[in-house]
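Could you show me some protein's one-letter sequence and the numbers that encode its backbone in two labelled lines?

___
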Amino acid sequence: MAGSKPLSRFWEWGRNIVCVGRNYAEHAKEMGSALPAEPLFFLKPSSAYVREGSPIVRPYYCRNLHHEVELGVLIGRRAQAVPQDAAMEHVAGYALCLDMTARDTQEQCKKKGLPWTLAKGFGSSCPVSEFVPKEKIPDPHKLQIWLKVNGKLRQEGDTSSMIFSIPYLISYISHIFTLEEGDLILTGSPKGVGPVEANDEIEAGIRDVVTMRFKVVQGTEPRSPKGV
């Protein structure tokens, strides 16, 4: 625990959400992207977290919202420039996560050479499951993750297919910036990403470990301030 802050409720106080892109070869292929030589990652704000019982809100500027199901790795101990062989000592547990993506916005950002924040960092862009203690998952590279939309299977993949392993990711990221207790690493999505619409229901799970369910709603465009 971080003082009085329980890891089992990391979404209430965790500071950083580090998302790894193109970590499954088949997903990179379906996106028309080359396989990375080193991990590609970006950040979401902690305000992106959303839990069951609250909806995923499609941003008012988005017309093509995509789901990406991922295994999340929760850091339980400060990690700074850690070697791969010691990386798992810094893991407290896991969570199932979604990297909700405004795909049309992301494509526009790519064309303009802009950051992906509008596409990846909006409120409710990181739905998460209950915390799963490390002891309940002996080998995080032997898990099946899946996602359904309105009862139809969209994504199914095995974490053994990751290009960069969890120890490699922790070590790599921790040599760039320090990972703090409560930080979450999203380890990439298997193939099958696709669009969701308002009123769709997303169900996802780690087989035999945890499941979660979210409804998608449409966000409303904010009113312009007076005089603008």
Q: What stands out?
A: The chain is about 15% helix and 30% strand. The two ends are 47 Å apart (CA to CA). Residues 122 and 187 are 19 Å apart (CA to CA).
